[in-house]
Known about the structure:
- The chain is an all-alpha fold.
- 78% of the residues lie in helices and 0% in strands.
- It has one domain: Methane Monooxygenase Hydroxylase, Chain G, domain 1 (Up-down Bundle), CATH 1.20.58.
- It has helices at 11-37, 41-70, 79-107.
- The longest helix has 30 residues, at 41-70.
- Its cofactor is Mg(2+).
Amino acid sequence: MDKVNIADLTEEQISFQLILHSGSARSKVIQALSEYRNENTEGADDLIKQAKQDLRAAHDIHFQMVKNEAGGTPTPLSLLLMHAEDHLMSTVTMKDLVQELLELFKSRNL
Length: 110
């Protein structure tokens, strides 16, 4: 995945990039549970790895925003950005929970 430079994007495009990457990760996390339920453990593991890559891309964008703000360039707050941040944080939580559940299921041969 190519690194996104937020300096090249509008405020709306930044928000949509966060939503894009976190949404892709969320879909893969949900699909991982489905794959595991269908006894495709390798497929589930691969989807979690892919979700982590998507989240890395979103976190990179987020880090650039934090870095800019720390450097004195404030981030304009909008409802769209709040939605994007909420989407990212809920996906991170979901990924962590599903990852732990899959490990629990594996340890108990479920």
